[in-house]
Hints:
- The protein is mainly α.
- The chain has one domain (88-476): Up-down Bundle (Growth Hormone, Chain: A), CATH 1.20.1250.
- It contains 20 helices and no strands.
- The chain has helices at residues 2-36, 45-49, 65-80, 85-89, 91-122, 125-134, 136-152, 155-178, 184-212, 218-246, 249-269, 284-295, 298-314, 320-325, 330-349, 360-380, 384-412, 415-447, 449-470, 472-476.
Amino acid sequence: MWGRLAASLVGLVAFLQWQWLMLLALRQRAHRKRQSRPVPEELPPHTRATPDPQMDSGPAVETGPATTSAVGLRRRLTSLAVDVTPLRSSREFRLLFIGQGVSFAGSMITYVAIPFQAYELTRSSLVVGLISLAELLPILLMSFVGGALADAVDRRRMVRITQVSACVVVGVLVVNAALPRPQLWVLFAVVVAAAGIDALERPSLDALVPRIVSRDQLTAAAALESLRGNLGQVLGPPLAGILIATVGLPATFGVDVATFLVATVALTLMRAVPPAPDAEGVNLRAAVAGLRYAAGRQDLLGSYLVDVNAMFFGMPMALFPQIASGLGGPAVLGLLYTAPSVGSLLATITSGWTRSVRHHGRAIALAAASWGVAIVAFGFAPSLWVALVALAVAGAADMISGLFRTTLWNQTIPDAMRGRLAGIEMISYTSGPALGNLEAGVVGSLAGVRASVVSGGILCVVGTAVLSSVLPQFWKYRATPSPPRR
């Protein structure tokens, strides 16, 4: 019963998320209509710049400086709002957005439940860090395979197959959690299998978007994908804490199983996305060609290495269970995992300004350094609420970095090579956190929690500055505007 209730809650959340996005879309459409409405020539110049939306239904109202200022403020706020144009213009993107949004929320529940169960079984933050490290090897081995497959097969079909496979793997967690004595080795085995499946899936999933969204909407699509992920990260961990505390781990993992089924249905409704006509087959030569292409571009190398540096030194999540155990248990653990996502969400819903930014390399580097500064503040936080604010700021910085990295990748990498480069991208943004959680666990065990967090944040800032210096083309990279559409 509880499992069905939790699944219903996730479905309700997804529905409310979709309704909220549609409301944003309608508001933006209404705003564009008001801007394009013709204005009578006899109105004074300052009134023509800010027409009254109700001028057709009554006599003209005299506008003064206060009214003009209010309208200008409203326009500036509208320009900050996330752009939902891809959701309106692309049916395939809508289906992908809904399905992956529900699935990711479920995955975030499991993301919290696995380290919680590992810590409950061992009382060791080092073990929690080792579980994160267990993801690294299958990611390194399978990302190149997944990238080659993404360029050689139907990307939608590839994602659907891996979603079903992941559903089966999470089902093993349900069975293990229901045992009288759950086994720690099962957690390691499932993490390895799930990481391998994700490495096969992620390149196809990332390479889908440039095929179903026009180039001039890629920045908006990246922001919407960040919004989708942030909503899952905001809603998933607290829901995980509630489920763990009320219905137990078996039902908690069961909710994730249900969300995979929703994603599979959405993918089935999408049209096929076949490989590019000039795509190479799945072979070693194709994988090597992708590596050579990435190595030949400093802007790509910088986007990869800056993120790896930030996550390796500044990733404190392996310490969250230990920190939470002294502050209130599962409920606090959920808050710690949620705080960065709250910051990411706030940054995403105000991401309209990113459309006017062209210096993507600098934006990535400055955002990564800001992550490090916020992690230092988290390490010195004197209370829980200060720690949560610092984590929220870190999450906002990470979202901005990710938004510009994704835009750089999608706008500049040829479609025939997009899948293979997505495999390399996955290694960059997953190996960093995996190694970083191990580093945090080791340093925390040797020197204490605060020393681990603060030193990591400082080294993140220093490493970002060094990489920006030795990769000048990354720092100077400037995006070219999209050609006008006819």
